[in-house]
Design a protein that fits this description.
five-stranded parallel beta sheet, Rossmann fold, disordered N terminus, 8 strands, 51% helix, alpha/beta, 16% strand, three-stranded antiparallel beta sheet
Length: 244
């Protein structure tokens, strides 16, 4: 399948042509990268500087994990989890200047960083039917206006026509150190070695899954963030927007 044919296939698979047109009518910024590469922190900063909404699509996979675990479901079930993803509705709202994820009228944002929920999200994200259902919702959210969206398949699948595409990268050791420092004082926190092992496993799952594997879009700007401050990464992305 050629690149253009793959593009049309992905667009038709997840959304309507009307939605595709709407996505090209306002500012859309796609930021991809592996776990703990700084996507969320950078994306929030860019969104605040540009006055855009912000969506970490990882929230949506964690939301499916959270709801599934709370309902006692097998989150690896390739029949049950797509039905769950199709049956619930997600939307963004703002509270005290922060974007929040609402699932069926319930704000579950504060529960999405729980270790069991995060681990479950990696399993959920490998299920094709879940990805199809959530990409549709992600594109619907994107049609509501200017947005910075971060994840692992934003530039390659979700927002293929995004005005700006960026892929953030860093070594797994640096990413593990960031994640460890971020959470070392929280309840149930893991050791550095455990965090490193978890990230290696999650990288393997993300890059080797059959549906929408993690990779840079061909037209992404790739940024190695190992030695960069968050503010510098955000500044460079805003400069890309200014030059569009």
């Amino acid at each position: 399948m050629s690149a253009s044919e793959q593009h049309r296939y992905n667009q038709d698979k997840f959304t309507t042509l009307d939605q595709v047109k709407l996505l090209t009518d306002h500012l859309t910024i796609a930021i991809d990268g592996p776990v703990a590469s700084g996507k969320t922190t950078v994306g929030k900063l860019v969104a605040r500087q540009l006055g855009c909404r912000f969506l970490d699509t990882g929230w949506m996979y964690r939301a499916i994990s959270y709801v599934g675990l709370n309902r006692g479901l097998d989150i690896a079930d390739e029949g049950e989890m797509p039905r769950l993803a199709t049956s619930i509705t997600m939307r963004l709202t703002s509270s005290d200047g922060e974007d929040r994820l609402i699932v069926d009228d319930n704000d579950i944002t504060d529960y999405l960083r729980e270790p069991d929920v995060e681990r479950g999200a990696s399993t959920v994200a490998t299920i094709s039917g879940v990805r199809v259902a959530l990409v549709r919702q992600q594109r619907t959210i994107a049609t509501d206006g200017p947005i910075v969206m971060v994840g692992r398949d934003i530039g390659t699948v979700v927002l293929q026509d995004a005005k700006v595409k960026v892929y953030l990268n860093a070594t797994v050791e640096v990413r593990a150190r960031r994640r460890y420092e971020e959470r070392k004082n929280s309840l149930g926190s893991l050791s550095y070695d455990a965090v490193l092992k978890d990230l290696v496993q999650r990288d393997t799952m993300d890059t080797e899954r059959a549906d929408s594997p993690l990779r840079p879009a061909t037209d992404s700007v790739i940024m190695d963030t190992d030695g960069m401050e968050i503010s510098e990464v955000a500044r460079r992305i805003v400069e890309l927007v200014d030059n569009v």
